[in-house]
């Protein structure tokens, strides 16, 4: 399996949970080795969130995750489009995808 | 300095006269505006056919001053004379006169939008002025809506500006919004955003929603309907609403605010200005591809990037904007979002507040409930908003309709409402409980498989409601909905008995008190301590060396009198609170157990000692010293 590189972007305050880094390029490990118990070979957003929680999320995971999805109020965008258009958690991540997590703002 | 005060007073007086005259002028001009409005006709909210008819001779309806005044924007092909006419007869509601609302309203007023409404409950604070450009130092403590309206009138005297100095909520929102064509969401909290969204979906108005925090801003349009725009080719198109994209509100701890997280002044300025632009485009009738519909603008001032992302379309299962909505009227949004729309100052003392909230709870009003704090699991705070009691829908079950046993369909709405009102307004808490108990029959299981065997089958409950004095059997849902109760409450009422509570056990510290009172007490032996104003007294017992021995004595005495003794902790606490100590000197020189230096001083030189510094130590509470073998200094 070829390497899988994705660009993760955070904005609207979501970056505060990830060391205040707004944009980072990450390389995902081979899924069979990382999560052997789920018997899958392709990364989807569901597994990406688990990986992010284990590797990137520094504090207060409840402000980012809820159950196996993101918490209400965070928009997930895959290549600048709402993840709903791609099948949400089941979207198969492609090499070079830009995945963006936006916390909605409410100030005014 | 005198000259300064004189001038300040003079200016204040002149300002007052100016305000009066301005108000007078505004009243006079109002008449003129009404006339010009009648002239223009309401092109924006008539049928498309009438619009087409008007198109041919519309240009004659714009007065000459207006053509001159708005000439720079009329030159634009997207606006033109017809667009300007639409602007002049448009009615826009700006909710929030803060960082977003101020710049948005300025440009709308400048563009000649005929009727601008401004809603804000708040007063101007000095911390607002860096971003809320309609307010100035002079307006501090003035209502934001009034202050903004005043400035807008000075920008454009040809338009009508209506300030609403109220907090927008479910009760007044429909009335306020009914007179407007476009709504700008410039609010700063989640409940009001959901309220505005539901309001706009229900009334069919487009909602231009902006937000800004720290260095970032977001902008999009919700609830757009193509059938209100005659330029749209596909009249059935509908954009997503706020709930389509965010069906559930975010957890309150994840929501930031300008007062807590800060904001750079120009950021809401940018977003508010763009909101005004989208409103102008919406009014002149541009199609949805050209506006931020199904798209969101993200502005990041930190690295100066604008980004457009594609949002999902309208959700066919949306709770409010789908064909079969589950929310058809405005709800209690503070309870829905579990956060407050407005920071309410809590001035009542804790016990008084608890009593007030309990009273609200017992009369079916919305109240604040308790929660454990995140940090200390044992500490409680009372800030969880709970919604008021509401009458639920009547029973719609087919089984109840067909059968003859239950009488759910014999109750009309009026009777149910009266029952609900009587239950929550006339009865006290015990009355409510008794009322429910008389209406619910608890029937034990009819048959046991084995005699005396413990069955898992619980009691059946038969629910009744009164109709003209008659007690009629109804289903559980009908009963609970009519009285606005939940099942858990009902069960706890049914199981509770009227047995009086067992009297509280007497406080054990009381017998410690009486025990200590009986002991002999003497002043400190140390002269320095006695002369300084230390309130400590010593228990004068020859056979007791320390407080632990005293406690053993106390235990013995209590046992002999057959009274349950207090714990050693309680005992020590009571003793130290009464400023009592036990001290058994080891030798002749050992006179003070508080300050060791006092012992080193021969008794004849007491007067020469500067006790200033040591004296401080004497003021310390005795429990601070308590239990320390080593003396503190």
TrEMBL record, chain A:
Keyword Repeat: no
Pathway: tRNA modification; 5-methoxycarbonylmethyl-2-thiouridine-tRNA biosynthesis
Family, similarity comment: Belongs to the URM1 family.
Location of cross-link Glycyl lysine isopeptide (Gly-Lys) (interchain with K-? in acceptor proteins): 108
CDD domains for the chain: Ubl_Urm1
Residue(s) carrying 1-thioglycine: 108
Official protein name in the record: Ubiquitin-related modifier 1 homolog
Its job: Acts as a sulfur carrier required for 2-thiolation of mcm(5)S(2)U at tRNA wobble positions of cytosolic tRNA(Lys), tRNA(Glu) and tRNA(Gln). Serves as sulfur donor in tRNA 2-thiolation reaction by being thiocarboxylated (-COSH) at its C-terminus by the MOCS3/UBA4 homolog. The sulfur is then transferred to tRNA to form 2-thiolation of mcm(5)S(2)U. Also acts as a ubiquitin-like protein (UBL) that is covalently conjugated via an isopeptide bond to lysine residues of target proteins.
InterPro entries found in the cross-reference section: Beta-grasp_dom_sf, Mopterin_synth/thiamin_S_b, Urm1
Key word 4Fe-4S present: no
Superkingdom field: Eukaryota
One Pfam family here: Urm1
Organism: Chilo suppressalis
Alphabetical UniProt keywords: Cytoplasm, Isopeptide bond, tRNA processing, Ubl conjugation pathway
From TrEMBL, chain B:
Domain of life: Eukaryota
Pfam families: ThiF (PF00899)
Protein's UniProt keywords contain Coiled coil: yes
Coiled coil recorded as keyword: yes
UniProt keywords, alphabetically: Coiled coil
Domain THIF-type NAD/FAD binding fold: 70-319
Coiled-coil features, chain-numbered ranges: 4-31
Family annotation (PANTHER family): ADENYLYLTRANSFERASE AND SULFURTRANSFERASE MOCS3 (PTHR10953:SF102), UBIQUITIN-ACTIVATING ENZYME E1 (PTHR10953)
Protein name: THIF-type NAD/FAD binding fold domain-containing protein
């Amino acid at each position: 399996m070829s390497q899988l590189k994705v660009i993760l972007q955070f904005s609207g305050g979501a970056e505060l949970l990830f060391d205040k880094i707004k944009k980072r390029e990450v390389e995902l490990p081979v899924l069979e080795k990382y999560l052997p118990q789920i018997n899958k070979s392709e990364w989807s957003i569901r597994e990406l969130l688990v990986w992010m929680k284990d590797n990137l999320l520094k504090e207060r995971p409840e402000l980012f995750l809820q159950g196996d999805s993101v918490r209400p109020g965070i928009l997930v965008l895959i290549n600048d489009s709402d993840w709903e258009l791609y099948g949400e958690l089941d979207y198969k991540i492609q090499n070079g995808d830009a995945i963006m997590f936006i916390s909605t703002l409410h100030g005014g | 300095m005198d000259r300064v005060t004189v001038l300040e007073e003079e200016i204040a007086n002149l300002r007052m006269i100016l305000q009066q005259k301005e108000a007078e002028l505004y009243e006079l001009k109002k008449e003129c505006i009404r006339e010009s409005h009648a002239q223009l006709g309401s092109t924006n909210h008539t049928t498309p056919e009438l619009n087409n008819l008007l198109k041919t001779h519309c240009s004659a309806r714009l007065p000459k001053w207006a053509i001159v005044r708005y000439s720079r924007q009329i030159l634009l092909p997207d606006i033109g004379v017809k667009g300007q006419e639409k602007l002049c007869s448009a009615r826009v509601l700006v909710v929030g006169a803060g960082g977003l609302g101020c710049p948005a309203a300025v440009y709308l007023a400048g563009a000649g939008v005929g009727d601008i409404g401004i809603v804000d409950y708040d007063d101007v604070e000095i911390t607002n002025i860096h971003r809320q450009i309609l307010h100035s130092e002079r307006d501090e403590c003035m209502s934001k809506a009034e202050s903004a309206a005043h400035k807008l009138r000075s920008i454009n005297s040809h338009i009508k500006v209506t300030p609403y100095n109220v907090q927008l909520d479910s009760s007044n929102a429909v009335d306020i919004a009914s007179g407007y064509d476009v709504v700008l969401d410039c609010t700063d909290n989640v409940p009001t955003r959901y309220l505005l969204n539901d309001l706009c979906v229900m009334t069919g108005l487009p909602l231009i929603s902006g937000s800004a925090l720290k260095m970032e801003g977001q902008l999009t349009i919700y609830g757009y309907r193509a059938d209100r725009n005659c330029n749209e080719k596909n009249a059935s198109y509908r954009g997503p609403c706020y709930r389509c994209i965010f069906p559930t509100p975010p957890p309150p701890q994840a929501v930031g605010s300008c007062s807590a997280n800060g904001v750079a002044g120009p950021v809401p300025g940018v977003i508010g200005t763009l909101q005004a632009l989208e409103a102008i485009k919406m009014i002149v009738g541009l199609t949805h591809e050209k506006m931020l519909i199904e798209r969101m603008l993200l502005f990041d001032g930190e690295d100066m990037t604008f980004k457009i992302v594609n949002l999902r379309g309208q959700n066919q299962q949306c709770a409010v904007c789908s064909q079969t909505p589950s929310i058809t009227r405005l709800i209690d949004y503070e309870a829905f979002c579990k956060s407050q729309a407005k920071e309410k100052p809590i001035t009542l003392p804790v016990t008084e507040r608890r009593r007030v909230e309990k009273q609200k709870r017992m009369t079916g009003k919305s109240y604040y409930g308790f929660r454990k704090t995140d940090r200390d699991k044992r500490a409680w705070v009372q800030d969880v908003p709970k919604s008021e009691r509401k009458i639920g829908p009547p029973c719609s079950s087919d089984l109840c309709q067909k059968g003859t046993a239950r009488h759910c369909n014999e109750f009309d709405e009026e009777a149910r409402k009266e029952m609900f009102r009587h239950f929550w307004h006339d009865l006290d808490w015990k009355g409510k409980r008794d009322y429910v108990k008389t209406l619910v029959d608890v029937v034990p299981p009819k048959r046991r498989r084995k005699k005396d065997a413990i069955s898992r089958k619980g009691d059946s409950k038969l629910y009744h409601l009164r109709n003209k004095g008659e007690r009629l059997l109804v289903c559980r849902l009908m009963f609970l909905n009519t009285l606005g109760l939940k099942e858990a409450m009902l069960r706890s009422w049914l199981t509770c008995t009227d047995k009086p509570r067992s009297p509280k056990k007497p406080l054990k510290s009381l017998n410690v008190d009486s025990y200590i009172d009986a002991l002999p007490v003497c002043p400190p032996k140390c002269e320095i301590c006695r002369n300084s104003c230390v309130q400590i007294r010593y228990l004068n017992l020859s056979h007791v060396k320390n407080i632990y021995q005293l406690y053993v004595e106390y235990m013995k005495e209590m046992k002999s009198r057959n009274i349950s003794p207090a714990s050693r902790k309680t005992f020590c606490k009571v003793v130290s609170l009464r400023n009592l100590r036990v001290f058994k000197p080891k030798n002749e020189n050992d006179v003070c157990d508080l300050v060791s230096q006092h012992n080193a001083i021969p008794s004849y030189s007491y007067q020469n000692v500067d006790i200033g510094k040591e004296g401080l130590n004497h003021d310390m509470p005795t429990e601070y010293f308590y239990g320390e073998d080593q003396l503190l200094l």
